[in-house]
Structures are given as C-alpha cells and as structure tokens.
Design brief:
- With 375 residues, the chain is of the alpha/beta class.
- It has 2 domains: 3-161 and 296-344, Rossmann fold (3-Layer(aba) Sandwich); 162-294 and 345-374, Rossmann fold.
- Helices cover 43% and strands 20% of the residues.
- The protein has helices spanning 3-8, 44-50, 66-81, 96-108, 121-127, 129-133, 162-176, 193-209, 227-237, 249-261, 276-283, 296-311, 318-327, 354-362, 368-374, and strands at residues 16-17, 26-27, 35-36, 56-61, 85-91, 113-116, 137-141, 156-160, 181-188, 213-221, 243-246, 268-272, 288-294, 341-344, 346-349.
- Helix 8 (193-209) links the parallel strand 9 (181-188) and strand 10.
- It is elongated, with a radius of gyration of 22 Å.
Length: 375
Amino acid sequence: MPMKTLIAAAFAGGLMLAANPAFAQTVGPQGESATPSADVILSDADIAALKDKGYKAALLWHTSSDFTNAVTAGATDEFARAGITIAVKTDAQFDSARQRSDIETALAAKPNVILALPLDPVTSAEAFRQAVKDGTKLVFLSNLPKGYKQGTDYASIVTDDLFQMGKQAADAMAKAIGGKGKVGYIFHDAAYYVTNQRDQAFKTTIEKVYPDIKIVAEQGISDPARAEELANAMLLQHPDLDGIYVTWAEPADGVLSALRGAGNARTKIVTLDLAEPVALDMVKGGNVAALVADKAYELGRAMAASGMKSLLGQPTPAYELGRAMAASGMKSLLGQPTPAFVVAPALTVTKENVAQGWKDSLNRDAPQPVLDAAK
C-alpha cells in the first residue's frame, strides 16, 4: 500500500501483532484474528441470489493512484459477477471535508454497498453515520471510524497482511546477504499503524529467526526528503553494512543515492511497496535486492466479496428465498456472516519476477523502462 495511503489509514488504537513472535500475525483493532482474503468467497448459489436485484455499489477512495486503480479493478470485477453496478466512484484527494461531500453525493444514488478508506477516524465516524442509518453495507479499507462496531455499523475491514510484509522483507534481506552480516534499520518515526507494524515485523524476524544477522544501526525517519542525509550519517558510522532495510520505497530512493554517492555497490537494500526508481535499480543488478508489496487487486476483490456477503443477509421475499434454497440444496442464504478483519497476502518482487509481481500487485504492467532493463 503506497505511503500516502498508509498515512491516511492511521487510526487510534491501531492494529496489533500477536505477542509471541513464533506465532506473530496481523490482528484487528479489537484483537480480531485475521481471515485470509482467499477464504472470502461467494458460491455459485450466492452469486445467483444476488443477481437481478438491482444492487448498486459506491467506491469512495481517498486518492487516485495505481494502488486505488488496482483496488477498484478488483472490486469492479467481483461485483460484476453478481451484476452489481458501480453507481459512484470518487476521489477525496486526502481531504476529509471533501470525503464527507463525496459520501453525501454517493448516498443520493442509494447504493447498497459502499467501499471506502475513511481518511480520519473522528470526522469519518459522523460522515458515514447516515449510510449506517440507511442500512448501506460498509466495507472499509485499512481504517475504521471511531466507535464503529462490526456487524452493526460495518461489515468488514480489509487490509494488507502487515506482519507478512515485514517478515518477507526480512527473509529477502537474509537471502540477499547470505544469512549473516550487519544491517541498518531505517524505520518510520511516526505513529502510523501500518508502517509501524511492517517495520517491527522486519526487526522481530531478523532478531528471532536470523541470529547471524545483527541490526547494528537504527534510524527513524519522518520526512522522506531527509533519507539521503540520514543514510550518509549511518554509512559514515558503519561503512561495512551488508544491508539496509528502508520503511518504504520513497526514502529508499534517497538511501540508494547515498550508496551511489559513496561508490558503494555492495550494500543491499530491501524496502516495501513498488516504485519505478528502486525497481529499475533492482533489475539492473544494483543495490536494491527486493521489494515487498501488497496485492491491491486482491484487496478490492475481497472488499467487494465481503460487501456482497453482507447483502446476502438482507430480507428476501419468501417465494424467492424458497426457490434460492432449493437451488442451493436447501442452504440458507440469510444471515451469512462477514469476517470482521480480512488480510490480503504480501508478495516479494525481485528481478526474476518483476513483470508478474507488478501485475499481481497492481493489476498493470510494470513501467516500460523496468521491463526493458529486466530482459
């Protein structure tokens, strides 16, 4: 999930990691266990029960980007299976007031399901309240309005498998440096639950799983523009670093500049999220060893599936219910539970799988310069 999205998704209380590193996992804001997105599926009978009802959906996003485009594609394709149309799609441009206006616009179209990333826990709680009163099914991406209760106010929260993203980054670092050596750790120095969990998962995995790798330098960063400066200071004190973990791709580009400026072609970088500058270095065999990303298209698919499952709990006319039950072998279509907390998988992107990895994550081709250099 891109960094601006992560900032938008920060909320009070946050998500947590299981305390025991051996069984660590991403868990929800109330301590909910995560349901893998692959488990959130609709049967043929479910799809048949949703069709021809005139259901509509609204997608209320926080910004416009490759990430949101991929989430939109996943949601749109899943809704299309049941003939559910997208009545409204908006971009709040990271403006909470604009998002409130977007919600009002969407409700005028009377959608049955809204998928959204609430920009602010407090203001969004009031902004989405009318949707709750109207009985609109809400599925949230990463963030949760303050005080909202699953099953009453919203159907599900869907987000990345944050622990796995950090763990896979640690695994990629270990592979890149041969399972031993000294690494630097550049973490996000701000209270944002997504980056905090990913960063901590990297550190925990290195410390618990790779005893021959030592984190010898740690540096927090809040302003990506300072990444090169901070990396230069780290390298001055530790010129023999085998690798550097960087909290996301934008500051990783600054760290890469610092390494190039020092003539250092040896120290490996592992970072999170996809971006052309670091990907281009990676496929050219430079300092960047791997990028760990989420599956944005799958996030959208799982959000739509959760929303449709919640619609299956809508009252159904007796005759239609009887027909649907008979068609599905007497399986009741009423009251299908929706998982409270759903996570989409992470994937590690390297030079070898960059083309497929980009498609799996963002549902689009990698930038042409990256594809050309990877040949």
